[in-house]
Amino acid sequence: MTAMVKAEGVHKSFGLVEVLKGIDLEVNSGEVFCLIGPSGSGKSTFLRCINHLEKINAGRLYVDGELVGYRQKGDKLYELKDSEVALKRRDIGMVFQRFNLFPHMTAVENVMEAPVQVKSAKRSDAHHRAMELLDRVGLSDKAGNYPSQLSGGQQQRVAIARALAMDPKLMLFDEPTSALDPELVGDVLDVMRDLAESGMTMVVVTHEMGFAREVGDSLVFMDGGVVVESGHPRDVLTDPQHERTKSFLSKVL
Amino acid sequence: MTDNLDKSPADTPPSGPTLSKTSVPAGGPEAIKAIPVRHYGRWASAVIVVALLVALGYAFSQGNIQWHTVGDQLFESSVVKGAGRTLLISVLAMIVGVLLGILLAVMRLSKNPVTSSVAWLYIWFFRGTPVYVQLLLWFNLALIFPVLNLGPIYKNEMTDVMTPFMCALLGLGLNEAAYMAEICRAGLLAVDEGQTEAAHALGMSHAKTLRRIVIPQAMRVIVPPTGNEFINMLKTSSLVYAVTYNELLRSTSAIGSTSYAVMEMLFVASIWYLAMTSVFSVFQYYLERYYARGSSRSLPPTVFEKIKANLFSKGSPRGAV
Questions:
Q1: Could you tell me if B314 lies within 8 Å of chain A, comparing CB atoms?
Q2: What pLDDT digit, counting tens, does each position of A185-232 carry?
Q3: For residue B246, which of B33, B77, B14, B36 has the smallest C-alpha distance?
Q4: Which residue in chain B has the smallest CA separation from A164?
Q5: Distance CA A24, CA A226 (A)
Q6: Cα gap B245→A118, rounded to integer Å
Q7: What count of CB pairs under 8 Å joins A to B?
C-alpha cells in the first residue's frame, strides 16, 4: 500500500503559540483515518495543513508522494505559486465544520461551481454530474434550494457532494457533524460510511467515537500538538495504553 | 370559528389588545373581550401636526408665487437639457467612483504595504477636503499647470483639457471614489472567511474566488449604501454650478435671474431633483432584492406583489395565516 498522506515532524506555530509540535503519521490509500483529541490539540490545524490552508513551519508533509506547498530542488525548497497550490487542491476535497456552502447559489449550483470554474467542464455535463452526486447524498429533490432553506444536515451533505464533484483522491473532514443537531448527525455519517465503502481515502477529525470504531481503519489520538497514541480504532478506543487517552475517552464515551 | 371575534373593528390601534384576531380553539377558554386603551396623546399630536400643515399650506397660498411659471417652465427645453446633464454627470461620476473605489478597496486590502498606504493616502485626502474645494481645484488647475504634457502620448493646453464637463467629472468622480472605496472594503470584509477557504479548497484561484464567491456576497452589503451615494450624487452635482457646467441648477437659475422668477425656478429644480431621486429609489429596491437571493428564506415582495396580496386578501380574516 502506498501512503496517500505522509507527515514527517510537522511543526506549526501561530505567532508564539506552537500548535503542532512534530507530527509523524501515514495515511494509506483507501483507508479511513480518524483524528480524535480535545479541542486545541491541533487536529483541525493538521488537517488544514494537508491542503495547505495553513503553512507548516518545519518538517515535511507529502500528499500522494508530492511535497505540500513546496518544490524541492537539491537541498533547497521553493515555495509553490498560488496557481500551483490551487492545482494540487483540486485533488483534495474538504468538508468544513460550518459547511461553508456558497449562500448565493442553489444546492446544485454549489456542486457545479468548481467543475465549471476550475476544470472548465461544460455546464450541462456539470449539471448532470451534480444531480447524480446530490442523488447519492439523498438530496436530489433539494437541488433548487438555497443553503438557507436547508437544514444543517442537508447543507453538510451538499457540501460533501460539492467536494466530490472535483473527483478528489483524498477527502478531508473537519468535524463534519459538530455543528449539527444530534438528530441530523446520522444522515451525514451514513453518507460518509457509503463513501468509505466506495474506497475513498478519508482523513476525518471527529468526536463521533461510534463512527471511528465502525468505519475507521486507523485512529490517532492527539493532545497538545503531538500524537499521543495511534493504532486500530477498536484497540485504541477499547484498550487505550496512555493515561491521557484513558482520561479523554472516559469523558467522551 | 372566528365569527364572534371579528366583530371588533378591523382598524383597532396596533398596540391595543390584538387578541381579538387570534382564534381560540372551540371548547377552549373564552376569548378576552377587553375595552382597548384610549390613546388621547395620539389624537392630540395628530391635531397639532394637521394644524401646522394647514398653516403652511395657507402661507404658500398667500405667498407671492407665480405658480403658472412653475408649470410653464417645468418642461422648458433648457431645463430638460439641464436635468439630462445632471443625470449624465451623476451617472458618469458614479461609474468613475465605483470602478476606482473597487480598485482602491482591493489596494487597501492587499498585502503590499506600498499599494495599501497609497490607497489610504488617497482616501485621506479626497475624503478630508470638501468636494466644492476639489471642484475649484480642478477648475483652476491651469493656474499652476498651463500645459498638460504626458510626454509623447499627449500634449495640450490645460484650459482646453479642463472643460467644465471634465472638471465636474473629475471633481465628483474622484471624490466619490474615496467613499466607494470604504463601502467596498466594508463589503469585502463582511464576507465570511470560510467562503474564501471553501473556494480555495476546491482549487479556485484568488481572482476567481473574488469574482465568483466573495464579490457577489459583498454586493449585498455594498448595494444599499451605494444607492444612497448615488442619490447624494444627484444632489451634490448641483455644486458643479461653480465650474460653469450647465446642469439643472445652472439652467434653471439662468431663467430665474432673467425672468425675475428666482423662487419659481428653484421650485422647478426641486421638482426635477425629487423626480430623479424617487425613480432611482424604486430601481434600488429591485437591485437590493436581486442581491438578497439566498440570504433569506424567501425574497421580500415587490411593490406590485404587495398591492396584489392586499387586494386579494380583502375580506378574508387577517388573523388567519
A1: no
A2: 999 999 999 999 999 999 999 999 999 999 999 999 999 999 999 999
A3: B77
A4: B202
A5: 9
A6: 49
A7: 73
Write the DSSP symbol of residue A140.
G
Of B203, B205, B212, nearest to A166 by CB-CB distance is B203
Q: What angle do CA B21, B24, B26 make, to 5 degrees?
A: 140
CA distance B183 to chain A (A): 20
Nearest CA distance, A59 vs chain B (angstrom): 22
Strand A218-223 relative to strand B155-157: parallel, antiparallel, unpaired?
A: unpaired
CB A170 within 8 A of CB A64: yes
Measured in degrees and rounded to the nearest 5, phi and psi for residue A235 equal -70, -50
pLDDT digits (tens, 9 = 90+) for A55-100: 999 999 999 999 999 998 988 999 999 999 999 999 999 999 999 9
Q: What are B37's three cell numbers?
A: 386603551
- Please answer yes or no on whether A90 and B202 come within 8 Å at the CB atom: yes
Check if B201 contacts A (Cβ < 8 Å).
yes
* pTM exceeding the 0.80 threshold for the entire prediction: no
Cell numbers that stand for B162 in this block: 479642463
Half-sphere exposure of B213 (CA within 13 A, CB side): 28
- For residues B295 and A104, the answer to whether their CB atoms sit within 8 Å is yes
B294 interface with A at CB cutoff 8 Å? yes
Q: Each residue of B240-284: pLDDT tens digit?
A: 999 999 999 999 999 998 988 899 999 999 999 999 999 999 888
